[in-house]
Amino acid sequence: RREAERRAQEHQLSLQHLATHDALTGLPNRTFLNEELPRLIDEAARRGDSLSILYIDCDNFKNINDSRGHSIGDDYLRSVARRLRDSIASPDLVVRMGGDEFLVVTRHYGLEPDSAAIAERVAAALKKPVRLGEATYSATTSIGMSVYPRDATTMSELLRSADIALYEAKARGRDNVQMFDAAMNKRVHTRLALEQDLRSAVNRDAIDIHLQPIVDIRSGRLVSFEALARWNDPRHGAVPPLAFIEVAEASDLIVELGECVFRNV
Q1: Beta-bridge partner residues of 51
Q2: Full DSSP string of 127-161
Q3: Which of 57, 100, 151, 197 is catalytic?
Q4: What is the pLDDT of residues 15-46, one digit of tens each?
Q5: 181 catalytic, yes or no?
């Protein structure tokens, strides 16, 4: 009977581990984070301590998957998980959020953590070349950070703030770290609105094409045209090309925009 109870208990623990950990990397998953982060916030509030939230995205991970296959992609994600675990203190938490996104929660005594130093250490660890199969890969990461209680005091707001900072890091060309600040909220909402309206315009073929003639000044003959994309939106007005092309590149909408331009030309 005792043996049966022991096996039943082990089976239950195994099921619990499967439910709260990522099968590929062995890291805790979102379910575990949803249980653990509120506890860490309560503990920090009682002690007067702080927490840093690092939201991490592996830049251009899709290129590894597409060019080398999912097996190499999985190996890369496992290497990211190992490096994250090795770059932080043992009491801190590393979570795989899904896909190529990870989250790190670090605990600090007092209210003024050196968050920038933590992020730089993590970024440096992930940037080192890694050997996968027959090739060596060097990759960069975009990191968004928020701090409890400076930026937010609830789990949902802390994660949202870190996510907004991550979006800002991607918009600035990736391979950088951004700390959340209140002004980001407005910038991100403006950029998201622009991205959504641009996506709608591309889907509706509402991007105008202006053909600029190119003339041979010696012969005076028209030799070709340069196709220029222009976007005149009902809500935003005439959006400068540099502005909407930057948004398209940051959101991977640039491919659809290019196809739209080629089609109309």
Answers
A1: 107, 148
A2: HS-EEETTEEE---EEEEEEEETTT-SSHHHHHHH
A3: 100
A4: 677 889 999 999 999 999 999 999 999 999 99
A5: no
